[in-house]
Specification:
Largest sheet: 5 strands, mixed
CATH class of the largest domain: Alpha Beta
Helix content: 25-40%
Structural class: alpha+beta
Number of helices: 19
Distance between the termini: 96 Å
Shape: extended
Length: 572
């Protein structure tokens, strides 16, 4: 039976680790080989040998491994060690940690000694961990072993590392067998897609740019923050980008070794729009991409961990949910919050406290209550006999927590404390004990999420996003959770006038806010940036600020106290 067709559970594996001299290219030689035979999920025979090398190891490697020049002087010849390794590999699958390195080092050693490399099938424990232990953050040999409760005593010696690797392989072996019945299936499971072969360049030459940078005039681009737009010869937008250093970032697209893009070959000119801050560049980039729809820009993606608690009010019996974006349309959005797990936990606590439903946007119809309804943790609107006004009062109670002036943390904890006192007064002591535990859990959870626990439309604010090194600022008027006005480098009188206009668009207090779908991502950009920069100068617009408050805000953003005097002068 061919090795690929053998059942994985009955196959023998040779776990191999090598140490080298640390020299580059053809000068790299083996200094030690360790191997452990694994079969049936257990460790069996072991092999270890130092390998004589023509050149001494580099000093850093010698200190790391402890393999000295004197030790290699009496070591076995490479031919004898490699013949032993070849014999042990016959009919077995080779396993190694970061297997590409060990396989390459062994293959080069076989070639240097004139021996035939057996070219066994290879499995890598890093790839196994990536697939079968995805929650392990570090996949180095020792950190991965500790994450799998494997004791590590010695590192950077061939046999010790091979044994550690073997124990890791045994820990993941059951999951591998469940996913791949045969050796061939296991190899196919981790087969890499072959990358397109890159054209080799002569030594000492640089990769050519996608287009000669000399053909595009970068001199007119600013060195500060802003947005740049590459266009073709007909003036059509090809790509929109942003940076706090526009000229350097735009040049980088055509630098030698830059990642090639299809639009760069068609770029003929570049123009720009300056902003005073990074936030201004982010907002402007988003707007220009929507308006121009350049082919070089993909859909905006967010790789951060910010999430929102949101409630869509346009569905029957609205529910709380956690999502990556604020809600569009008639809705309430809370956040941004750092970390999905904490937000989900908070939603679960609110659902239980206010008996809100959890069964999805499309309300199912049931003939009997769900498990939450049977436990008294849901009002069970799915039965079809619930008064919508009662449910809405409960929902408003949950949402009012985030709109409270004193802060969501104090409001929610005060609500739980009131429920505890009511339960104790009614002699429902088990209920009071449950609420006491919930109070403790909520206090810890709210401390972790503090800062983002307010609805996006709860406060109207004037935010001044400062530029790099305090040079200028961008002013954003945030009303109803939206950017209703934006101005770069505002003067004092402009602050007054724009503030008065922005306040004219305020929704009535307590009224739900409808955010247009095409503004949702802009709301997220501004909210998450502000959450990540808590020291950004901002001023509440409720009550309406006077000239003194606007002057203080402008001075704090610019760092120029003289602006206080200018801002205090009455408008003509």
């Amino acid at each position: 039976m061919a090795l690929r067709d053998q059942p994985l559970r009955t196959t023998e594996f040779l776990v191999v680790d090598v140490e080298t001299t640390g020299h580059g290219g053809a000068d790299c030689e083996l200094t030690e080989v360790g191997a452990v035979l694994v079969g049936g999920g257990e460790l069996h025979d072991r092999y270890e040998s130092l390998v004589a090398a023509r050149r001494a190891p580099v000093r850093a490697v010698e200190r790391l491994t402890g393999i000295s020049r004197a030790m290699l002087a009496t070591a076995q010849a490479p031919e004898r060690v490699l013949e032993e390794v070849s014999e042990r590999l016959r009919g077995r699958v080779m396993v190694a940690h970061s297997a590409a390195f060990d396989r390459r080092a062994l293959a080069n050693a076989f070639a240097a000694t004139g021996l035939r490399w057996p070219d066994p099938p290879v499995l890598c424990t890093v790839a196994l961990a990536r697939r079968f232990a995805p929650l392990v953050g570090q996949r180095g040999l020792a950190p991965l072993a500790r994450a799998l409760d494997i004791e590590v005593a010695t590192v950077h010696r061939a046999l010790a590392d091979a044994e550690t690797c073997a124990w890791i392989f045994c820990a993941l072996f059951g999951r591998l067998c469940a996913a791949a019945p045969t050796v061939g299936d296991a190899l196919d499971l981790f087969a890499r897609r072959r990358r397109r072969a890159r054209r080799r360049r002569p030594p000492g030459t640089l990769a050519p740019a996608a287009r000669p940078a000399a053909e595009i005039d970068f001199a007119s681009l600013p060195t500060g923050p802003g947005v740049y737009v590459f266009r073709d010869g007909a003036g059509r937008a090809l790509y929109v980008g942003k940076s706090v250093r526009v000229r350097a970032r735009a040049r980088a697209h055509f630098a030698p070794g830059a990642e090639p893009a299809g639009w760069t070959a068609h770029a003929a000119l570049v123009d720009h729009r300056s902003t005073a801050s990074e936030l201004g560049a982010l907002v402007l980039e988003n707007r220009l991409i929507k308006r121009m729809r350049p082919p070089g820009n993909r859909n905006l993606k967010h790789g951060d961990r910010w999430v929102y608690i949101r409630c869509r009010l346009d569905i029957p019996f609205p529910m709380l949910e956690v999502a990556r974006e604020p809600a569009a349309g008639l809705a309430v959005s809370v956040g941004p919050l750092r970390g999905r797990a904490g937000a989900v936990d908070l939603v679960e606590q609110l659902n239980s406290l206010f008996s809100l439903r959890r069964c999805g946007r499309r309300l199912p119809r049931r003939s009997h209550p769900s498990a939450y309804g049977q436990m008294g943790h849901c009002l069970s609107p799915c039965l079809g006999d619930l008064d919508p006004n009662l449910y809405r009062r409960r929902l408003d109670g949950a949402l009012a927590v985030f709109a409270a002036r004193g802060g969501a943390r104090q409001a929610l904890l005060a609500h739980v404390e009131a429920e505890m006192r009511r339960a104790a007064t009614d002699q429902r002591y088990e209920r009071a004990a449950v609420l006491s535990r919930r109070h403790s859990r909520l206090r810890t959870l709210l401390e972790r999420l503090e800062g983002g626990l307010s609805t996006l439309h709860a406060r109207s604010r004037l935010v001044l996003a400062p530029g790099p090194e305090g040079q200028g600022c961008d002013a954003f008027w945030l009303v109803g959770g939206r950017v209703v006005a934006w101005n770069t480098a505002p003067a004092a009188q402009e602050l007054r006038e724009r503030t008065a206009l922005a306040l004219g668009s305020r929704p009535p207090r307590g009224a739900p806010v409808a955010v247009p779908a095409d503004e949702v991502d802009e709301v997220r950009i501004v909210a998450t940036w502000l959450a990540a920069h808590p020291g950004t100068p901002a001023l509440d617009l409720e009550p309406v600020p006077g000239d003194e408050a606007l002057a203080e805000l402008l001075a704090s953003a610019s760092g120029d106290p003289a602006l206080r005097t200018a801002a205090r002068r009455p408008a003509r």
